[in-house]
Amino acid sequence: MSKWYTISCAECGSEIYVHEDWTNPPESCQACKAERAAQWYETSCADCGATLHVHQDWANPPKLCKTCKDRHAAQWYETSCADCGATLRVHQDWANPPKLCKTCKDRRAAQWYETSCADCGATLRVHQDWANPPKLCKTCKDRRAAQWYETSCADCGATLHVHRDWVKPPKLCKTCKDRRAAQWYETSCTKCGATLRVHRDWTNPPKFCKNCKKEYASQEASCSHCGRNFIISTSTRINCREKGWDLPKRCNDCRELFRHKPFKTIREKTLLGKTVFKTYNSRGELISQSYDEVGILGAKRRIHRSNVGLKTGTTREKVNWLGKEYRETRSPGGQVKSISRKRTNLFGKEYTESIGGSSRTTHKTRTKKSMRGKKYRETE
C-alpha cells in the first residue's frame, strides 16, 4: 500500500503531500506554482515567428529563437584592427567592413583638421602629416586648371604650360631660355661706362650706349680733299672730343692716301710750261698738286689742289713779331691748316718743320736727290 508524506513549499513553507513513488516530487505548492507561471508570457521569434517563453523580470528579453540566433551568429566573423591588431567582429553582409577598431579610428580622426578653400571658402579636410596641404577645393582646382593650355617651345619643341591671363606668354622653355641667356654678356660703354648687353654672335658688337650714340650720333661731312660726302662715326666723334682734335675732314679713301709716308713732292712742267709741284705718297699715288701765283696786289701765294682738282688750301709767306719768316697754310674756309718754318739740325742741314691740325702733328720735309740727280722734297 502506497504511503504519503508531507514536505514544505520552498517558497511559502506550506505543507505539500508527496507520494513516495514520485520520482520528481514538487518543490512548490500549487499556489506558488501558479504565481510563478503567471510571470511568464509568450512572444514570437522576430525571424521565423516561433513561440518564445519570456519572463517578465528579464531585462533583455530574447527576440530570436535559438535556431535563428545560431543562424545569425554564423553570419559574423572576426578580423584584426589594421593599426593595433585588436579583434573586430564583422558581419558578412556589410558592404564596407571596418578595418580599424574604435580607438584607432578616433585616433586617426584626431589627425584631421578643417580649413577653407582659398578661392570659394568651402571646407577642406586636411591631414596634419601632409607636407603640402591643399589650398583649393576640387571644383576651384579644376576651374584653375582649365585656365592653362599647352604650347611648344620655339627652339626645341618642348611642351610649355601657359596661363590664359598672361600678357606675354613664354615662347621658350627654361633650358632654351638659359641657353640663350648664356649667349649674352655685359661690357661697358667706351664713353660713359654704362653697361651694355652684347650677343656673342654679333660680328660688330656696340661700343657705346644708346645715350652716347644719340649725343654723338654719326654725321655726314664733305671731304675737304675730294669733295665727296662721308660719314663720321660715333666712335670717331667721341675719340676726337676726348683728345681735343678737330673732326676728320677727309673721307676714308683720301685718308688712306695720306697714310703711306714718306711723301715725295716733285717739280714738274705742264704742257703750257707752267711749274707745278706734285706730291705722291710712298705707293706712287698722286695726292695733290700745287702751283704759285701772284695776287692782285702782287703778293705771292701757293695754291694747293687735290688729286681731283678741288682747292684744298693756300700758303702764304709771313713774318712774325720777331721778324722771323714762316709759311702759313689756310683752308678755303680761312682756317689755319699748318704753319711751317725752316730749321737746321745738328749737322747744319736745313729742313722744314710744319705743325698742323688740332692734334699738332709735326712733319719734317727735306730736300733730296734721286738716283738720276733730280731734286725732290720728302716729307716724313
Brief write-up:
This protein has 380 residues and is of the alpha+beta class. It contains eight helices and 24 strands.
Structure characterization notes:
The chain is an alpha+beta fold and 380 residues long. The chain has 7 domains: 4-73, no CATH class; 76-109, no CATH class; 112-145, no CATH class; 148-181, no CATH class; 184-215, no CATH class; 219-252, no CATH class; 260-379, no CATH class. It is built from 8 helices and 24 strands. The strands form 8 sheets. The protein has a 10-stranded antiparallel β-barrel with strand order 15-16-17-18-19-20-21-22-23-24. Strand 15 and strand 16 form a beta hairpin. The longest helix has 10 residues, at 234-243. The protein starts with a strand and ends with a strand. The model has no long low-confidence stretch (mean pLDDT 90).
Features:
380 residues, alpha+beta, 7 domains, 10-stranded antiparallel barrel, 37% strand, rod-shaped
